[in-house]
Amino acid sequence: MHAVTYITGHRRWPARLGWGGEGLYSRFRWHRERNLPLVRRVLLVHPRLPEGFDGLTVAQVSDVHAGQFMTPDRLEKVRALVCRLSPDMIVFTGDQLDRREVDADLFVQAFAGLTAPLGVYGILGNHDYVAGRALALAALEAAGITPLVNHRVLIPRGSHGLLLAGVDDADAPRPFGPDFSVLQSGNGFFKLLLCHQPQLWPEAIRHGADLTLSGHTHGGQISPMGERFSVARLATRFVAGSYVSGSHLLYVSRGVGVGAVPLRLGTWPEVDLVTLHRGQPAARL
Questions:
Q1: For 158, which of 52, 108, 185, 212 could close a Cys bridge (C-beta 3.0–4.6 Å)?
Q2: Average pLDDT per consecutive 10 residues, the chain (285 residues; last block may be shorter)
Q3: Residue 30, SS3?
């Protein structure tokens, strides 16, 4: 499959980390002053994408972590950024909440009423379970976001259809957890899966997901030596960006927020605008 990424939404720094001039410290200081995620525009090409969905744009918002480190002002900036992208579809790929009950109010106030022509959908992440499953699901619904937790919907566009499915989080306690059988009844359709933790991608492949969108890793969050040396690799080899296995694609977002440590280093917060095109693979990643 073919994937191209480029970045907008902030000053373009060199791809390599530098330790002097406009190096690591300068970039970190500039980002903190602006307090905005960047926009990473991703082009993915797949031969099975229906013609009616050629050019589909999906805004992926992952790991918001609404909470003490994501102020209402910053959350509103994230919302405004997503709206400016005018995507066909918006997906939230888990960890909307950080850990407190009040985080649900922060999330709902920021994203209530968010719309897209083909809908707004969300799944749960491990931090959503820390806050509480029922609370996290209620927050999605209160914001007008359709939960796809072990559920699927058929997205029509003209005479074509796309199967959009979501699975529960890998760390969900029993009797909850990911159920990939939601993909099995969609034979013949292009299958787009929302799955918070990317280490589940092999399971998604076994159940026929053509494209999987994940988050969870924050790109390592603190990776001063770059994502190739990220501590996130202790949990998964799918740390950030695009991955290909045969005819299956995975895209891992670096996410918007932060976890327990209110710091990002070497991997900046991002909102992803994924554009899908129908065509033969031009490269393998």
A1: 52
A2: 49 34 43 66 94 96 93 93 97 95 96 97 97 97 98 92 97 96 85 97 96 88 59 68 92 87 75 94 47
A3: helix
